[in-house]
Structure formats: structure tokens, C-alpha cells
Amino acid sequence: MQFPAPPLTGAHYRADLDGHRGYGMLAVLFAHAFPQKVTGGFVAVDAFFIISGFLITGIALRSLEKGTFTFLGFWAGRIRRLFPALIVVLFATLLLGMFTLAPSEMAYVAKHIAAAAGFSGNIVLAGESGYFAALADNNPVLHLWSLGVEEQFYLAWPLLLFLLWKRMDRFALVLFSVAAASFVLNVVQVRTNPVLAYYSPLTRLWQVSAGALAAYAVQRRQPFFTPRVADALSIIGPLILVVTTLTFNESMKWPGEWALIPMVGVVFVLLVGPDAFFNRVVLQRPVAVMLGRMSYPVYLWHWPLLTLGVDAVAGDAAPGSVALRSAKIGAIVLSVVLAWVTWRFAEEPIRHGAKKAWAVPVLVTGMIAVCVAGLAQFAIGGKVFLVPNGAESLVAHRFDGYTAYRNGQCLLDPARTGTTFGDCTTGPADAAESILLWGDSHAAHLYPGFKASLDSNVQFTQYSMGSCPPIPGMLTQGPECARINAEVMKRVAANPPDRVILAAGWHGYTWSDVEQTVDSLRALGTKRIDLVGPVPRWQKSLPVLLYHSMRSSDRGAPPERIRVRQASSIAAIDSAMRVFAERKSLRYFSPWSIFCSREGCLTTTGPGPESIVAWDQAHLTPAGSIYVVSRFAR
To answer: Which sign does the torsion angle of CA 403, 404, 410, 416 carry?
Structure first.
């Protein structure tokens, strides 16, 4: 694959690409604020990768042509482009967190602020994304993973350009080969390790390379299309992006093959040039161009405001309520306002003003200071202001879910391929009764309760995998779930237990498919099948929720009961599962009915932080597990 090699001619500023980024930024804002309405906002982030590859490659190629390219100059340009706004936002997020977060939240956020300052947020997220990772959705710097991917790419990219510069006839072939290898790795890894596929720069390299190839082609001034074709493609490209943004969703394996579709749309916009109809008439509208020029600081500001800001002013508001919608819209408006201030007074003066010798060293020092501050906060466990009276022990307590649930042995991680169960059976071989507890982590969190309540003459086995309900043949949860469920069924067939207990976080699945499991177990000779319904789901980690409740009320002890935001939906699942159990002649255990009443759901079984019933949004502590299992009918 080769392009003709006439002399390079510089392609200067393209307002249509800023307009494209402006519309893309709107998609990101509304997708993050209202994910039920705009389900494919992640498409816009992928588009940013491609546009970035186009612009940065174009800048580097022009510098090489003029003979002004240096590695230090390239990286200094990246520092002037990225550091000013990022330093401002990271410091502001750290400070805001100290006034609004609980210490455990602050420590978690501080770790990710330090990672973002080192452009390694994607690596940290990939490393902690096991089933018991902290709840990333509430991480105010979660969105900076994409910045890490980009800059890791640009560490090596100028070296490749420099090596290929004197053999530009091979440039397209080499880059196409790199992109193809990255895409194949992406397709494979999205099936074997989807978390790594999402965050790894190696599986995103093909997207940046697509933009780089487009930059090379445009720099060569190859006439790709007639004016009419270019006009048509200028409409088709954005239309592809609009459709995919509104129809794609997080259930798709991403990036994967599906990511090719929006890539084609972006490449059309890049290749047809600024004079094509849609690029000229729509993408170059002043408002869109201005938003595009500010898109980087808007992107930086929007997620801290949608997490920390919205939670601070409307944390107790019900989903879909006017108060919550208003808070989110306010966060979007404020992010644009703060982005303009940041762009006007921090980013632009350094990026396009007089390039003083002190700019880069000062910026590097500032970023190191952010990183050190984040690491210090993480090391001390999160230093916050306004700690409520009586919350010290609550703040200091740490729950060990790995040991309590027998994680890695009897609760497997779906992100780790090929794992199998260890010794997950307790009790004598000649026990009077054999029991199998089977399901996802919501089965595993019942183990401490059963361990405490069962007689010594019972043989008890736990088989569980995170995010994997006890429904053989269910493919939507990935190949590891299907494989491990098939293995459990083989073990049941080889040695049928007297009693099987099925438990899962049913709200996340099509729970009615468990009927297939019930029928299969009965066909294998299982005498008794019990079904455990859903537990309460808290707005956030229960200890953190209690901390904030104590802060707002200034009471010296956590409240015994708190109303659950998703009460109606969980109660509906509980009611439907009870009817299903009666129809199938199963014994039904209802944690929802045990924990919850009209006054709210139980938060603690006694004094002290060790008595709190859940350690995150929905997983029980040993105290909560013992409390609920002891109330199951014998």
C-alpha cells in the first residue's frame, strides 16, 4: 500500500475539525449526564483518538519537512498543550474532594489523581478492575484514562516518524501494518480480556494510526474524491457518528469490530477536507468551532463536576427527578464556563503566547507537585475536612472481602481466563446432607452466614464467579462465565448434592432464565432447590453513605435504617421472584424482606463498624451475611 510521494505541503489549521470536536464534546457531556438517553457517548472518545492521530502526525510531518523537528521540541509542545489545564483541574478536584468525600473515597481518588498526573490512569484502572475494584463510576478522574492512552502512544510515535522519514515510500505500508496488528489484538483481547482491551494503548493504537494515515494522505494532497462525492461523504461521515452514538451501548464488546464503523465516519470527515459541504456549512459554525477549541478543558472539567459536584448538591435525589436533572444540567453549564476560564487564562497564554524558556520546567514541576500530593493523600488514607463526630472508627475500619468470600479460590474473577475452583467443600464426606451454593459474588457473600449457621454434619460447597449468574449457556456475561457454569453442571451431574442454593445479583441479568437451571438440576436428580432473592442496593458504598449521613445530621452514631433509592425496582424483582419460586415449587429466601421495611433498610446489626451489613453498594459483610442467613427458614 503506497501513496505517491510528491513534496509535502503543509496543511494548516482546519476549523471544521474543531467543529467536529465541539459536537463530539456535546455527545460526551450528554452521554455522561444522561446515559439512558445517549447510550454510545464512548464513540466520541474514540473519534478524539483518530482526530488526535491526524493532527499530531500532521504537525510532526511538517516539522520534519522543514528540518525543524526535534524530540524535545515535540514533547515540549505536548507539555504546553496538555499540562496547564490538567494541573488546574487535578488540583481543583483534589481540593474539592477534601471537602466532599469520605476518607476512603479521598484515598481512592487521590491515587487516580496521581496516576492521571503521570498519564497512567488507564494502566491503574486496568490493574484494579477485578470484581472487587472500587466503584469506578464515582471516580471523578475516571475519564482521564483516555489521556493516558494518547500520551503513551506519543512517547514512541515521534521515534517511528523519525525513522521512517527518509523512507516515506514505506510510511503508509508500515503504519497500515501496525494498525492491522493492533486491530487484530483488539478483536482477540476484547473476547479474552475485555478490560485490558478497553484500556490498553496497544489495542487502541489502530485508531490513532487511522488518523495518522489520513494525515499522511492529506499531506500528500492526493485527490481522493470529486467535489460531489466529497460533499456526500461529508454528510455520511457525521451521520454514521450520530447513529452510532445514539444506538451503540455498553453491552457491546468494545472497541472490537464495532469500532470500525465510527472510525470510517471520522476518516470521511478528515479526508474530504474543509471545503466539503457539511464540513463547511455545519462543522465550521462559530459556536461549534469555539466549543471545539475549548473541548480539552471541557472534557477535563465535566466529569469531576458530574460526580463530586452533583453528588454534593443532589446526592439524595431520586433517579430521573427534576432535582437530579437540574443538577446535571448545571454541572454541564458550569463545566463549559470553567473550561472557558481555563482555556483563556491558563491554556492559551502558554500554548500560543510567547514561548518563554521557563514554561516547560514550571509546568513539569507543577505536574510533579500534583502527583506527589495525590500519592501523599493515598499514603495517609485520605485526609479530609469536616469529619463528623463519632465517625473516626467508621473511617478507620477496613473490610477484607477477599478472605470472607474465599476470593480466588471459590469466588473466581471473570477477567482471569482458565481459572478453576480450589478446595471449596467443607464438612465430612459422610455428612447427612450435602449443599451447593452456586452463583456470582452475591452467592459468595452468603458463605460467612451459612458457615456460621449450618450444623457440623453438613457438607457445604461454594462455587461462584463474579458477574456470573448460575445460568448455564448465558453468553452475555462472557466466555469465562459460560465455561465455569458448564463445569459446575458437570460436577453436579457427577455427584448430585441434596440441596442447591441459587443466588446472584439478579437486577443485572435476565433473572427469569434461571428456570433453565432449575429444570436441569431436577433432571440431574437434585432433591431440593432454594432461590435467594436480591439484597438492597445502596446509592453508594454503605460505610461511605453512613459517613455522609452522620456529617449531614451531626449525629454521633450511624442511622439504623436508610431509605434505598432503588427500592421500588428491587422490591418488584423480589416480588416477581417469589411468584416464580412458588410456581416452580422452590423455597424462596428474601433478603430484601429481611433487611427492609417501610422505615428503610437496615444498615447495622449492632454498635461498631464491624456490624455494618454491607461494605459496598450491595455486597454483605460477615455481619450482614450472618444476620440474613440466620433468618432464612430452615
So the answer is: negative
